């Protein structure tokens, strides 16, 4: 029998309204799924099952009384461990904050409560949302449900792992250099980085404020649309699945990889699918990718140092090696380095704006390889994971990652970039592509986990342990 945890947000919503399912039953199914799978994946790091069940009962009472708060009413959602949830141990994946309890809700979390969503728990992040996967943070980093020996990528690692492993359908993540999009690509799910400042950041741990943004992560594009609409408080109209009349540019010079030369072919295949949906395709070039990534890295290091400088001199010994080194790198940057990086960001933004005068969106791979193996990071060593995400944090353009196929059994993502505040266009393109390709799979965890696999020690902190 299919578990209620496998229902899409829309299917679950229909069942809640026709009386064939209660929100409490839906929450219980998700909690059971987490109990069954989280030891292997390590996505969830805090559960408060009593609070979850109470929120679900409240949703049932409201729906029964005729109060319908919208499509997320009664739907479980996971929260990245950098968003404040009142009374929960939001610890940013760091021993620096091991005893921290959130004083209130982040604005986006409050909006989810207002929408009637059921907060399921906190999911793992790279320490301080900076860099990883470190071996010396507060808890172990999640494993990729497609191959447990591989990482999930990006600081929204727990969101992507939880969704791909079938423990939740939607999650609230954040993106500073690609941390919504790259984990989505590596785990075969959907991630939306919205336009700069489209979503409030109050109650969210900052890293590089000029680049940071919350973002929606989901199993499907439709579910990402529903989540984004609620946290942005902006209606997202149902799209036409035809792309007739849309013009899409292909950034071919950003589709090259020495590590995975076939990535160009995957992108061409994706473009062909978009063409079959009715889009007109146009090749175009963007400024040098490596230069843009270098500029974005300067801003992350510089702003990250300013954000967390107190820890570097005071109690840096309690910080993991990777985030410490990343912030320390900011100390050697000059004011001119930062000025040059901001100039490069402006130049790229101008180029992208100019390209988007002639096309409605631009596509390229999200990452230029599949997810690396944990072994590549043994001993806390840093490893560059090539991706096309960082530049659009600098320019502020919205960008959507959708599953694009598989290489050696691991997912790849297609990134779709659009004009500011035109997330609806990206979602339209993404959903048409998703419906015409079906690159996702019903259950990555079940496909991968052929035999019982348990990690030593559970990273989940319960409310009882924090009191």
Element layout with pairings:
Layout: H1 9-18, H2 23-41, E1 44-47, H3 49-64, E2 76-80, H4 107-114, E3 118-123, H5 157-164, E4 170-175, H6 181-187, E5 190-193, E6 213-218, H7 221-232, E7 247-251, H8 263-276, E8 280-284, H9 289-313, H10 321-329, H11 335-355, E9 361-365, H12 390-395, E10 399-407, E11 410-418, H13 423-437, H14 444-448, E12 461-462
Parallel strand pairs: 1-12, 2-3, 2-4, 7-8, 7-9
Antiparallel strand pairs: 1-3, 4-6, 5-6, 5-10, 9-11, 10-11
Walkthrough of the structure:
The protein has 467 residues and is α/β, with parallel strands linked by helices. The protein has a single domain (4-462), classed as Amidase signature (AS) domain (Amidase signature (AS) enzymes, Alpha-Beta Complex). It has 14 helices and 12 strands. A 12-stranded mixed β-sheet has the order 8-7-9-11-10-5-6-4-2-3-1-12, with helices on both faces. Helix 7 runs antiparallel to helix 13 (423-437), helix 9 packs across helix 10 (321-329) and helix 9 crosses helix 11. The longest helix has 25 residues, at 289-313. The chain is globular, with a radius of gyration of 21 Å.
């Amino acid at each position: 029998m299919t578990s209620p945890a496998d229902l899409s947000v829309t299917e679950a919503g229909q069942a809640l309204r026709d009386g064939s399912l209660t929100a409490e039953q839906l929450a219980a199914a998700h909690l059971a799924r987490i109990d069954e799978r989280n030891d292997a994946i390590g996505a969830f790091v805090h559960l408060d099952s009593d609070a979850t069940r109470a929120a679900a009962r409240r949703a049932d009472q409201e729906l029964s009384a005729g109060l319908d708060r919208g499509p997320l009413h009664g739907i479980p959602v996971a929260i990245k461990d950098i968003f404040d949830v009142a009374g929960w141990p939001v610890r940013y994946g760091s021993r620096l904050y091991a005893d921290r309890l959130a004083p209130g809700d982040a604005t986006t979390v409050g909006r989810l409560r207002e929408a009637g969503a059921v907060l399921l728990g906190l999911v793992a992040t790279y320490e301080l949302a900076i860099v990883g996967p470190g071996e010396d943070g507060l808890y172990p980093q999640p494993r990729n449900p497609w191959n447990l020996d591989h990482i999930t990528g990006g600081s929204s690692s727990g969101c992507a792992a939880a969704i791909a492993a079938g423990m939740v359908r939607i999650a609230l993540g954040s993106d500073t250099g690609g941390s919504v999009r790259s984990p989505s690509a590596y785990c075969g799910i959907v991630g939306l980085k919205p336009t700069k400042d489209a979503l409030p950041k109050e109650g969210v741990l900052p890293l590089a404020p000029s680049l940071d943004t919350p973002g929606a992560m989901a199993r499907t594009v439709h579910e990402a649309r529903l989540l984004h609409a609620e946290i942005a408080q902006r209606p997202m109209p149902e799209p036409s699945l035809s792309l007739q009349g849309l013009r899409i540019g292909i950034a071919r010079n950003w589709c090259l990889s020495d590590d995975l030369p076939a990535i160009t072919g995957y992108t061409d295949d994706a473009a062909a699918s978009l063409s079959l949906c009715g889009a007109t395709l146009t090749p175009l070039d963007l400024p040098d990718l490596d230069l843009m990534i270098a500029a974005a890295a300067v801003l992350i290091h510089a702003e990250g140092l300013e954000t967390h400088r107190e820890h570097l001199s005071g109690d840096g010994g309690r910080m993991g090696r990777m985030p410490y080194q990343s912030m320390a790198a900011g100390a050697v940057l000059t004011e001119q380095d930062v000025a040059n990086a901001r100039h490069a960001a402006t130049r790229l933004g101008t180029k992208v704006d100019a390209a988007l005068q002639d096309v409605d969106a631009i596509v390229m791979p999200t990452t230029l390889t599949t997810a690396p193996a944990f072994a590549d990071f043994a001993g806390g060593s840093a490893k560059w994971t090539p991706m096309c995400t960082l530049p659009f944090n600098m320019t502020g353009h919205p960008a959507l990652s959708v599953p694009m196929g598989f290489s050696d059994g691991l997912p790849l993502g297609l990134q779709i970039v659009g004009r500011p505040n035109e997330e609806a266009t990206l979602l339209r393109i993404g959903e048409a592509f998703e419906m015409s390709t079906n690159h996702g799979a019903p259950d990555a965890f079940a496909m991968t986990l052929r035999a019982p696999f348990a990690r030593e020690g559970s990273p989940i902190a319960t409310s009882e342990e924090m009191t």
